[in-house]
Design a protein that fits this description.
6-stranded mixed sheet, binds flavin-adenine dinucleotide, alpha/beta
């Protein structure tokens, strides 16, 4: 990897700006398809990809009015298993895919009524949902408080250890020949309606007829993209805790648990190595990544309300990340104005889940094929005044 500040005289078939899970998955698959790929990222340690909980949760993430997003998320979970298997084969490292499903629990009757409304909607969309009374919930997760009013098992949800997954993607990309430049893309260069490459913060251009902007919530800071697309991506802050079992303590949960506690949502995601992720806040605070005492308190309070044993786990880490949000909560994937200029961002709450299918869609664009039809509502063109498939068109 060239040191920061060194002029880079490089050409490539494709430049990818951003090395979170989206950019790295794209870079790996593009290199595997035979393209010469340069990935540019100044430092990956601020990436949302390393903060995320790793839920692969099309079912428990399905919300009213997001039918098109649900279709992409279902495509994504169906693809995740084969993609992860190929990644594990390429690297020799397990990425911690778990398939136990999500147990959604409600703390009081009001929470239960809200869960039942969502469950009816999810069933109407053809999703599996098994209603459970309090006793049946505790049969699945014995440490749940008997105060839990009831719950629903959403068997179609999975999870992955997102840090292992991100590390494996980097390793696979390097092994496939992706060159990494540790710098920031300030501008995409275009001429005659065609991508020409990128300009770097610390000097030099990289010439390339294809450029993919995959810089997460920072994508809008890249000059040369159409103004409407730059304005469409914003950071949505999420604070999250990582807990660890004390030595010798058996795992306290096996399913992902999503709880509503007097109207507040909290989730607990188990890892094979004994970690339990507790998340997450959703805050409109611009690029702020600080961790606040109030958020730590609220997350622990709500987690302990449904799973009192949480208090015995070790508080190993507190962190905050920035989800790439968009006005319609949908990703922005595809051609972005000039020929060969592509965007892959805006994955908001589901970027880990959508990373394999995003890589598939972008590699399809790079190699002259059509992305899967599920992507039609999510083209950049919907923000640039061009028609997109939209809700209810399929
Ligand atoms: C608290 C929290 C919990 C979450 N939980 C889940 C979950 O359970 N499941 C799920 O699927 N998703 C989850 N997400 C969402 C998920 O993390 C994101 O959607 C996903 O990580 C976005 O990936 P990305 O690669 O687009 O962006 P990022 O991971 O943010 O990576 C962007 C990269 O771009 C680089 N960059 C920035 N500017 C430039 C530039 N100008 N030039 C070059 N590089 C640049 C940055 O250094 C960074 O490495 C969660 C997010 C948060 C914050």
């Amino acid at each position: 990897m060239p040191a920061k500040g060194v002029l880079v005289a490089v050409t490539a078939d494709v430049v990818v700006a951003g090395g979170g899970v989206i950019g790295t998955a794209i870079a790996w698959r593009a290199a595997a398809a035979g393209l010469g790929v340069v990935l540019v990222d100044p430092a990956r340690d601020e990436a949302a990809s390393l903060v995320a909980a790793g839920m692969l949760a099309p079912v428990s993430e399905a919300l009213f009015g997001e039918g098109a997003l649900l279709r992409v998320n279902l495509l994504a979970v169906a693809r995740f298993g084969s993609f992860a298997a190929e990644l594990e084969e390429a690297t020799g490292h397990r990425v911690g895919v778990r398939r136990e499903g999500t147990l959604a629990v409600a703390y009081d009757p009001g929470d239960y009524a809200a869960l039942m409304r969502l469950t009816a909607f999810r069933r109407s969309a053809g999703l599996d949902a098994e209603e459970l009374d309090s006793r049946a919930c505790r049969k699945l997760e014995s440490f749940l408080t008997p105060d839990v009013h009831g719950g629903v098992l959403f068997a179609g949800d999975w999870s992955v250890d997102n840090r292992r997954y991100a590390a494996a993607l980097q390793q696979a990309a390097a092994a496939a020949g992706v060159r990494v430049v540790r710098d920031r893309v300030t501008e995409v260069l275009t001429g005659d309606g065609q991508a020409r490459g990128v300009r770097l913060a610390d000097g030099g251009d990289i010439a390339s007829a294809q450029v993919v902007v995959a810089a997460g919530c920072w994508s809008g800071a890249v000059a040369g993209l159409p103004a409407e697309l730059r304005a469409a991506v914003r950071p949505v802050k999420g604070q999250l805790l990582r807990l660890r079992h004390p030595d010798g303590m058996p795992p306290v949960i096996t399913h992902t648990i999503r709880a509503t506690v007097r109207g507040a949502d909290v989730y607990l995601v188990p890892r094979a190595d004994g970690e339990v992720i507790v998340g997450a806040t959703q805050e409109e605070r611009g690029p702020d990544r600080t961790v606040t005492a109030g958020a730590v308190h609220d997350l622990l309070h709500d987690a302990m309300s449904v799973l009192p044993v949480t208090s015995e786990l070790i508080l190993a880490e507190t962190c905050a990340g920035l989800r790439p949000g968009t006005p319609d909560n949908g990703p922005v994937v595809g051609e972005a104005g000039a020929g060969g200029l592509l965007m892959a961002t805006g994955h908001y709450r589901n970027g880990i889940l959508m990373s394999p299918v995003t890589a598939d869609a972008i590699v399809a664009c790079l190699t002259g094929q059509r992305p899967a039809a599920e992507w039609e509502p999510f083209t950049p063109g919907r923000f640039a005044g061009q028609p997109a498939g939209g809700e209810g068109t399929r």
